[in-house]
């Protein structure tokens, strides 16, 4: 953690977008452009938590007037938690550097949580890339969303600040977003908005294949279970 660079005073912010990014110059511009294009009357801010990048990640964040928060690259959980700590909004929206939000994301999702009395939510998503990425997309949209304690993926997690703080944020464990979601849902109502509001990259599937990707997440989840999350 080495400090931050902030613009503006953060007054009257409804939603803070927290984007962890380490050497994400190839993807970050798309994520930030999508946030700039949001069609909403709500006030929002964008914080890019830079994990000690050696590429142009910080420069790209500044191009889009995002607040740059410096972090030592310890973990994605640490980056998300630091971003939340520095954020000003009543609601926290966590997305990844390779996520693009639809123009109606903020208005639709904030309306959904308020109408349903929720402390947190995700939405249906589209995973870009090879056709085999559609299996992951279907799992998120039609399996994660129907669990008794829905898994809110870290690339699309919308949560009220008070609930986030009361459960201690993202834990430092494998599959931190699953652990976070399950802990949160033990105490608060959470759900999925049945509208496709984000697109996320299927780059891991491109790099590792579907079998390699499934095995990667299976191993992480076994590690999570060993820590009793």
Automatic annotation (TrEMBL):
The keyword 4Fe-4S does not apply. Pfam families: Glycos_transf_2. Keywords: Cell membrane, Glycosyltransferase, Membrane, Transferase. It is found in: Cell membrane. Residues 16-166 form the Glycosyltransferase 2-like domain. One of its GO terms (cellular component) is plasma membrane. One of its GO terms (molecular function) is glycosyltransferase activity. Gene3D superfamilies: Spore Coat Polysaccharide Biosynthesis Protein SpsA, Chain A. It comes from the Archaea. This is Glycosyltransferase. It comes from Natrinema zhouii. The lineage of its organism: Archaea, Methanobacteriati, Methanobacteriota, Stenosarchaea group, Halobacteria.
